[in-house]
UniProtKB/TrEMBL annotation:
Family label: Belongs to the glycosyl hydrolase 28 family.
Subcellular location: Secreted
Top-level taxon of the source organism: Eukaryota
Keywords linked to the UniProt accession: Cell wall biogenesis/degradation, Disulfide bond, Glycoprotein, Glycosidase, Hydrolase, Secreted, Signal
One GO cellular component term noted in the UniProt record for this chain: extracellular region
Molecular function terms from GO: polygalacturonase activity; rhamnogalacturonan alpha-L-rhamnopyranosyl-(1->4)-alpha-D-galactopyranosyluronide lyase activity
Protein name (record): Glycoside hydrolase family 28 protein
Signal peptide: 1-18
GO biological processes: carbohydrate metabolic process; cell wall organization
Organism expressing this protein natively: Hydnomerulius pinastri MD-312
InterPro entries (UniProt xref): Glyco_hydro_28, Pectin_lyas_fold, Pectin_lyase_fold/virulence
Length: 381
C-alpha cells in the first residue's frame, strides 16, 4: 500500500511538470491559408504561455501545428523568456505594399527555443517586381532576435523573404540545422550575427547576398559546417560610410562550402569607417566559381565611388588556412587585400591556400598596405 501511494504521488508530481502546449488553433488560428495567423500567435502567448513558464523552455510550447496558414501582420514579442515556439505548418506571407518591419520580432528576450518542421514562405519576389529592389525599399524582414540571449533556433525553413531572413543580436545564441532558400538577388541576407559567443552550424543558405556574416560589435563567434549557394559570402561587415567604434574579434569559421557566389570570404568596409577587427580564422573552405574568393577591403563601396579616406579601420591577425577551389572566369583577383595607408592590415596569414580560376583564366593576387605571411606579394610584418 505504501509503495502504491508513493508511485501515485510520483506520477502526480511528474504530471505537474509535463509540457504545456499552447496550440494557436485554440486561440483563433485557422489553417485555411486566408485567416491571419499572427493574432492567434499573439493570443496564444498572452493567454497561455505568459505566466506558465519555468526555467526550462521545453515545459511551455507555443505550437503552430501542421496546416497552411496566412501571415498578414507581424508577431512582436517583447520581454519574453523561457518558452518554445514550434512552427510545424506552412505560413504564407500575404503581399501588402505597406507592410514593413519584421514578421517575427523578439525584443529583450532570453532562453527562447525556435523550432519546428514547417516553412515560412516570404514570397519576396512580389516585393521585388522584375528584380527591382527599389520598388518597395521598406519591405519586411522575416525573423529578428534583438537584445536576446540564449536563443536556440533550428528546424523551420525560411523561404524567400522580401528582405533579410535572420538577424540575431545578443549573446550565447545558436542557430543550427535549418535551411534558407531565396532568389539569387541582393538584400536577402541569410544570417546576420552580432554579440558575444554566438554559434551557427549545420545550415544551408541559397540566396544572393550574405550567407553567414558577422556584424559589429562581436566578441566570440563560431560558424561550422555551412553550405552557401549563390551567396555573397561568409563575411565580416560591411561597415558603412562614417561608421565609428567597430569592434569585432575572436571569429572562427570552419568547414564551409560555397558554390557560384559573388563572394567567398569578404572582410569589407568603407574607407571612412573606424575601429578594429582582430583575430579571425577561416579554415577548411571549398569554393566553386566564386567572383571574389578572398577579399579584405577598406574600399568596399558598392554601386558608388568611395568617398575620401578619413577612417582608421584596422584588421589584425587574420588567418586563411586550407582553402581550395576556383574563382570565376573573370579577371578579378582570387585574393585581394587592400587596406588604408597608415593603418595597414597586419598579421594577415595564408596557409595551404590553393585557388585557381574557372576555364583556365590566369589567377592574380593584389595586395596593398598589408603585411603577414604565405604570399609572395605580402611582405613580412
Amino acid at each position: 500500500m505504501a509503495l502504491s501511494k508513493f508511485l501515485l504521488a510520483l506520477a502526480a508530481a511528474s504530471g505537474a511538470f509535463a509540457a504545456k502546449t499552447c496550440n494557436v488553433l485554440n486561440y483563433g488560428g485557422v489553417a485555411d491559408n486566408s485567416t491571419d495567423i499572427a493574432p492567434a500567435i499573439m493570443s496564444a502567448y498572452t493567454n497561455c504561455v505568459a505566466g506558465s513558464t519555468t526555467s526550462n523552455p521545453a515545459d511551455t510550447v507555443l505550437l503552430v501545428p501542421s496546416g497552411t496558414y496566412a501571415l498578414q501582420t507581424a508577431v512582436t514579442l517583447t520581454n519574453v523568456a523561457d518558452f518554445t515556439i514550434e512552427i510545424d505548418g506552412a505560413l504564407n506571407l500575404v503581399f501588402n505594399a505597406s507592410l514593413t518591419g519584421t514578421l517575427f520580432s523578439f525584443d529583450d528576450c532570453n532562453n527562447i527555443v525556435w523550432q519546428g518542421s514547417g516553412t515560412i514562405y516570404g514570397h519576396g519576389d512580389l516585393w521585388r517586381p522584375g528584380g527591382n529592389l527599389g520598388t518597395y525599399p521598406s519591405r519586411p524582414r522575416l525573423v529578428r532576435f534583438q537584445n536576446c540571449n540564449n536563443v536556440d533556433m533550428s528546424g523551420v525553413t525560411l523561404n524567400n523573404s522580401p528582405m533579410f531572413h535572420v538577424t540575431i543580436i545578443g549573446n550565447n545564441n545558436v542557430a543550427h540545422n535549418m535551411q534558407i532558400v531565396a532568389d539569387h538577388i541582393g538584400e536577402t541576407d541569410g544570417f546576420d550575427m552580432s554579440g558575444n559567443n554566438n554559434y551557427v552550424h549545420d545550415v544551408s543558405v541559397e540566396n544572393g547576398d550574405e550567407c553567414v556574416t558577422v556584424k559589429t560589435p562581436t566578441d566570440g563567434f563560431v560558424a561550422e559546417n555551412i553550405q552557401c549557394f549563390y551567396s555573397a559570402g561568409c563575411n565580416i561587415g560591411s561597415f558603412g560610410n562614417n561608421v565609428t567604434g567597430v569592434t569585432v574579434q575572436n571569429i572562427y569559421y570552419k568547414n564551409i562550402t560555397q558554390h557560384n557566389g559573388d563572394g567567398g570570404i569578404v572582410l569589407k568596409s568603407y574607407p571612412t569607417a573606424s575601429g578594429l577587427v582582430k583575430n579571425a580564422t577561416y579554415i577548411d573552405f571549398t569554393f566553386t566559381n566564386i567572383a571574389y574568393p578572398i577579399q579584405v577591403s577598406d574600399f568596399w563601396c558598392p554601386n558608388e565611388a568611395c568617398p575620401p579616406t578619413t577612417g582608421n579601420l584596422t584588421w589584425e591577425d587574420i588567418t586563411f588556412s586550407s582553402i581550395t577551389g576556383t574563382g570565376d572566369n573573370s579577371t578579378r583577383p582570387i585574393i585581394d587585400v587592400e587596406c588604408i595607408s597608415g593603418y595597414e592590415c597586419t598579421g594577415i596569414v595564408f596557409e595551404n591556400v590553393d585557388l585557381t580560376k574557372e576555364d583556365g583564366v590566369t589567377a592574380t593576387i593584389t595586395v596593398s598596405n598589408a603585411c603577414g605571411s604565405g604570399l609572395s606579394q605580402l611582405p613580412a610584418c
